[in-house]
Design brief:
This protein is of the alpha/beta class and 226 residues long. It is 41% helix and 24% strand. The longest helix is centred in the C-terminal third of the chain and has 26 residues. InterPro entries: SAM-dependent_MTases_sf, TrmK.
Length: 226
């Protein structure tokens, strides 16, 4: 089991039905059933090959009858009678994640998303669609950083600051080594772009990255002095 799957699993508690859209080989569903974190898991993938592997993997465990595997593009055109307690969409682009949420046949009240890129656009979409970000975790695995976001549907909109969009409303108050390394990496990616060629959003990003890293340096300095 990968660290990413472990972290996503830890974000889920006492669920009746969890949908894993883009389930790949179905390892998350297996973990949820083994740990009794979900009564049922709905594995969905648009590609037959990984779904076949998910089916083969699920047959090896006790509770395999509680895992449902469906070949489908997201959660559209399905007959789902029970509410989905958590919808996990990991490893896809932001546009695809947004499409899956928008076209779901049932309202998705709790989301756990891990966008491949464009974390700012992901936070923007969630906020504008009345999702409140309640948890964020950075995972470093196989030389890659993964941002995992948990959000819940609310009746109200939740305004975010530039810092919230760029660093994260939860992550901005943290200082884990993974987060600091991730921020440094994001900053370096923008620094490779000539200043004159940087877009407005990139200028905002690098300002927020520099402010965050500078605050971390001041914190370390004060702790050393004390």
């Amino acid at each position: 089991m990968t660290q990413k799957i472990k972290v996503i699993s830890q974000m889920i508690d006492d669920a009746f039905l969890v949908a894993d859209v883009g389930c790949d080989h179905g390892h998350l569903g297996i973990e949820l059933i083994k740990k009794n974190k979900a009564q049922y898991v709905l594995n969905v993938d648009v590609n037959l090959s990984p779904l076949k592997q998910a089916i083969a993997n699920s047959r090896k465990i006790i509770g395999k009858e509680r895992i449902i595997n469906i070949l489908n593009d997201g959660l559209s055109n399905l007959s789902i009678k029970n509410p989905i307690d958590y919808c996990v969409i990991a490893g896809l682009g932001v546009s695809k994640i947004n499409d899956i949420i928008n076209n779901s046949v049932v309202e998705l009240k709790q989301l756990i998303v891990q966008p491949e890129k464009n974390h700012i656009k992901m936070r923007y979409y969630l906020t504008k669609n009345n999702y409140q970000i309640v948890d964020e975790i950075i995972v470093f695995e196989k030389n890659n950083y993964y941002l995992i976001i948990k959000a819940i549907k609310t009746e109200d909109k939740h305004d975010l600051t530039d810092t919230d969009y760029v660093i994260g409303p939860i992550l901005k108050n943290q200082n884990s080594p993974e987060l600091i390394s991730y921020i440094k990496q994001q900053k370096e990616l923008i620094e490779r772009i000539p200043v004159a060629a940087r877009k407005k959003l990139q200028l905002i990003e690098i300002t927020e990255y520099e402010r965050f890293l500078n605050n971390q340096w001041k914190l370390e300095e004060s702790l050393t002095e004390s």
